[in-house]
Structures are given as C-alpha cells and as structure tokens.
Amino acid sequence: MIIVCAVTGSTFVGMITGFKLLAKIDPSSPPHCVIRIDASAKPAETKVQVLCIAKIGLSEVDITEVDVVLDERYHAGSYGILDKQTIEAIEYGVRMDAFITDPVYKGKSLAGMIDMIRKGEIKGGNVLYMHLGGQLALNAYSDMENKVGA
C-alpha cells in the first residue's frame, strides 16, 4: 500500500501511469494499492488535471476516472488551512521519529494515514508513505496552534 498527498496530482499521476504501463508490460505484476489523500479541497479540479496529464502518451481507455480516486476527508476544508488533526499528526511524527512534515501537504496526508490506521481501514502489512518535502512551508506556520481554522 502506498499513501501519497494530492494537490496538483503530478506525483500520483506518475504513479498511476507507471503502474498502468507496468501492468501492460507484465500482466503478472501484482496490483498496487495507492491511497491518494486530497489536500487541495478541490478534488474535481485535481481529477481533471490528473486525467489530462495521465493520458499523455497513453490511450483514452488506459486511464479513466475509476483510476483517479481521492480521499477527501483530510483537506480541512481549504488549501493551506490547518486543523487540529493535522497539527496532532505533525507533532506525532516529530515526537515518534523526528519525522517532519509541513502543514499544507504532508501533514494532512500523515493525519489521514494515522486516522485510517486507527480506524482499521489500513490493516497490518507494508505501507509506503510518500514524503516529498514541503518542510520549508513550516516557516509560514511558526505559531501553528494559533492558525487552526484561520
């Protein structure tokens, strides 16, 4: 299982197309479960962007809307707006493993992953959490607790 944050969708579109091409080349390759956590609060726009990018070099039937699934539960209502769950996830990552995430992208997807594990939606096994940077955004959120819902 792979967990990735999605705003513009460029990272997970690469994953979708890569896995689709792998399946075409090697039909015996195992399926890949990718959970895409929306941090944009505009999932319809993200889906359109992803479908446009993904179809470059592929046929119309290779990538469809069925392939572009976003979990919309963790975007906190707006891009760049913090919520308590995101702050708790960021603090948890730092406390447990000096794992630093930003409040805009990775903090929201980390909050989603933690919540899904706690709810039993993600069972035991290997989970790859795609951490793709973003720590520089922390400078804009130096007083995170005071910015919840701001």
From TrEMBL:
InterPro entries: ACCD_DCysDesulf (IPR027278), TrpB-like_PALP_sf (IPR036052)
Keyword Manganese: no
Keyword entries, A-Z: Pyridoxal phosphate
Recorded superkingdom: Eukaryota
Cofactor(s) needed by this chain: pyridoxal 5'-phosphate
Keyword Amino-acid biosynthesis attributed: no
GO molecular function, one term: D-cysteine desulfhydrase activity
Family assignment from sequence similarity: Belongs to the ACC deaminase/D-cysteine desulfhydrase family.
Name of this chain's protein: Tryptophan synthase beta subunit-like PLP-dependent enzyme
Organism: Armillaria gallica
